[in-house]
Amino acid sequence: MTPIRFHNTKTRRKEDFVPAIPGKVSMYLCGPTVYDRAHLGNARNVLLFDVLFRLMRHEFGSENVTYVRNFTDVDDKINARAAESGRAIGDITAETTQWYHDDMDALGATRPTHEPRATEYIQQMIEMSEVLIENGHAYEAEGHVLFAVESYADYGKLSGRSIDDMIAGARVEVAPYKRNPMDFVLWKPSPDGVPGWDSPWGYGRPGWHIECSAMSKALLGETFDIHGGGNDLQFPHHENEIAQSACAHPTGEFARVWLHNEMLQVEGKKMSKSLGNFFTVRDLLDKGVPGEVIRMVFLTTHYSKPMDWTEVKRNEAEATLRKWYGILHGHGFGTKLISALEAEGKWQPDAEFIGVLANDVNTPGAMARLHVLSKGRTPEALAGFAHGLGMLGLVNDWDAIPMFDGGEAGPDVAPAVAAKVDALLAARAKARSDKDWATADQVRDVLNAAGVQVTDVGGQATWSPGPDFDAAKLGEL
Length: 477
Fold this sequence. Notes:
Layout: E1 5-8, E2 13-16, E3 25-29, H1 43-60, E4 65-69, H2 76-85, H3 89-106, H4 122-134, E5 138-141, E6 144-147, H5 163-169, E7 184-189, E8 204-206, H6 208-220, E9 223-230, H7 234-248, E10 254-261, E11 264-266, E12 269-270, H8 281-286, H9 291-299, E13 307-309, H10 311-330, H11 335-343, H12 351-357, H13 363-373, H14 383-391, H15 415-433, H16 437-449, E14 452-457, E15 460-465
Parallel strand pairs: 3-4, 3-9, 9-10, 11-13
Antiparallel strand pairs: 1-2, 5-6, 6-7, 7-8, 11-12, 14-15
């Protein structure tokens, strides 16, 4: 088995991954609040956990990996959308849940093992709140139930903040019934026209944070392996999850590993409606950007680094995928060929590719390895390359491999021609390394004149023949 390592937010160091239950893996990802389309940034942790899910199933067996991603379908944003539109809340949440599935499916994201809806676990939330009151970690006030942050000594440990720092740096609801401004709501009353449920504290609805604690406990137990989300959720949401779960179930560990992804930018700027650079996954899909291209742009940046969506990156990703898919089509990859390779024991993952991916879900490094593997000239030599594309979710149906317009690079380019281009790229790389810019520019001009489209990703150059490709011009250097 390949050693797997993660940078654990909880401990602030990279650690070997050892499941709580030997041979079994449990994962939880905070899912969407279903009142509108998923914006582009919402897809980042979905794709991270999708690759992680694929890796874990490869290493431990699909039957031994449980992945939970929830839907928040009771929330004030949903209530506000219903009031604005005059539509029923159930209709809004059903529609937006389907939108979310459609958009994530288009990005090649595998459906999780469980997708619980908050409204299905109200009783568990009530019971957890009762336990917290009994244990002295929560209190009732004016129909609300609030968690007392000062009752939990480790509050703030995940985000590395003291309670005083958090009060100073956060916008918190100041209410006369709170003992401490940082105390957060587990249950709150519902006025007329707002969804609610009967509880020991009256007719009401849950606070946001209690949802994930109740659902993860019900589906994964008091201790599970990996919890994820954007780093914007680290405080207060994840901090509050830990506090209420640890206090309600003191014999459990809750999440043992925390993975937090960095945020998305667009052309170097924070995505926002005020800047006019805010768009949804569906916006891109409707403009004709293939889901595979969106996915690849995300995976070219490590999840722990800020990710910048740019048109340059989009074009580079599309050019690379055009070449890669052309290789697969040109060599006849499909379920029939894969079955034949399996029968011969040749449908195997590349060990170096898996090793790189297992090192803190290093998707940029894994793709750099695919650039190397794509140079194989036979189906057998390309098996590791093709297997890796599947592992990254860039091919999900081997009998429907995408085919992008604009040409392809495969065995239709003669091996001698391909070797000449490879040699030119090697010469360009050496010239750059030697700071011989004149030679590097000369090689570039030859490649451009021949219609070779070069893509530099992760320090690795790949190429594809453009529409005006002319192999005869490669000999002019």
